[in-house]
Design goal:
Layout: H1 4-7, E1 23-25, H2 57-60, H3 81-102, E2 107-109, H4 118-139, H5 146-162, H6 168-177, H7 180-188, H8 194-208, H9 214-221, H10 227-259, H11 261-275, H12 281-297, E3 300-302, E4 310-312, H13 317-327, H14 346-373, H15 381-394, H16 405-426, H17 434-445, H18 453-470, H19 490-524
Antiparallel strand pairs: 1-2, 3-4
Helix pairs in contact: 3-11, 5-8, 5-10, 8-9, 8-10, 11-19, 12-13, 12-19, 14-15, 14-17, 14-18, 14-19, 15-16, 16-17, 18-19
Keywords: Membrane, Transmembrane, Transmembrane helix
Biased composition (Low complexity): 58-76
Region (Disordered): 15-79, 529-548
Amino acid sequence: MHDCCACLQRYPTMPGNDEQPTSMSTTVSEDASSDAESSSDRCNSITSASDFDCSRQSFTSDCSSSKHSSPSSSPPKTITLDDVMSSARDLSNLTLAHEIIVNRDFHVEQPHLSQNSLEKQVKDIVHKAFWDSLESELNDDPPEYEHAIKLLEEIREILLSFLSPGANRLRTQILEVLDMDLIRQQADKEAVDIQGLASYIVTIMSKLCAPVRDDEVKKLRESPDYVVSMFKEIFRVLDLMKMDMVNFTIQSLRPDLQRQSVEYERAKFQSVVEKTPSALDHTTEWIKSSLEEVLFSMPTVEQPNGHGKAGKALPSPFLVFNSGFIRLLTWDYHKSPLPETLMTDEVRLRELQRRLQLLKAVASVLLIVYSAIGGPISGLPALAERLKRMTSVLLEGIHSPDFNLSEALGNVSGQICCELNKSLTERNYPALPPELQVTLKGQITSITQENNPIRSLLEGRVQQYFRVLLATPNSHVNLPPMPGGLALIQPELTSLAVTFVSLVNFNKQVYSPFYMMILKTLLFSNEAPPPAATAPQDPSIQNPVNSK
């Protein structure tokens, strides 16, 4: 498959009013997913359930594989500038392709530069100089057409780039009307009809533009006869049409990328690894930490070699990897960079972490309230929804470093007490005693403490729910029971969990050979591979990323 970036055609630079470098605007949504089909028949990959066999044989089996089904390694070498630039291009293509695959809302927009930015000032100065030069040339006696001919030539190439391969008649017509050799001859004889050529260009634009640009093109027909202003507007609308074409190309490219997503992303990352020896350093540290965590929690058992020596059993690969993915829920981005294999999902992971942090705080507050008051407010879903919504609004921004959580929780407790008193009195219950309100406020504000029992309890239950979901086949359909204390945030937590599992499963499909290679090295680098043993398979990877 050719590089994704090559499909997004590079259009000629235009001196238009709004000429700006292309930027990529993405929207992170809860259901960011794709219809990517899983790759099959990869004996060295763990995208299928059998590849997660936690037996030692799964680490040591030697089976042939296709070119990109497993990572290859090579001796260390000196990195050249060409290698660095090539790796950067591969990473750019990988990032763009991944974003198109998993983010249905991905699209390209023109950036909006700040009026006071240096870039905006430089752009304005350069453009003004160009248009002033064009105006001066056209006003000369006799007029000069050097800049005007360059504009016409560039416009011709842009219009041709919009044509489909089969539009031969229109292509021929454009080449005949905007024949640069003929126009230069006319310029020498001062017989160039600039106004007529501009009108023809607007007519062609009306045939090629998307329906959403019809009004913009219509305004061009109503533009004043002043040629320079008209060309400015033509280039402005052509900029918009270019963005439309790029986004149409992205939409057209998405099904093809989804069909080949696993192979494409794996091949691109393999190319980066081959050129950059340190490309898996952070991933190795991540898996090493997860392995140590799993080994620490495993019981010591007698080795099956008959010598009666005690030791740790060999951990299941999918248990190690899943533990690593669970750690992402509380990842400290200030202390450690993400594993390289997850960099393309950093924005989504950060957003998921922020939303999960808010949900856990809301759940802690609600658990304290319902535990303290009990029966008089139980069985009232409308009240529960109001309390949840109120708490969520007041704690919005909890992830921000300058967010004053203690003050916000104090406001939450005050608002909750008012809402509870209102609900209780409406149903002929006595209002909350002042001492109970003080107790409630103290308990709610105490969840800022790191070792707060309510906070620790819910944190453990949330992580356990995500662990179970990761190990559940077709988890977006077969949802496990919600742990106690989380029922009031069940819809929001389930949505987050399904999104997270979809992201993780796709990541496993792409990068599992690299993970297995690292895990093999960590387990067996200093010892001979032990004998094989049977163990359960990982049931969590059944489908590619598709959270819907």
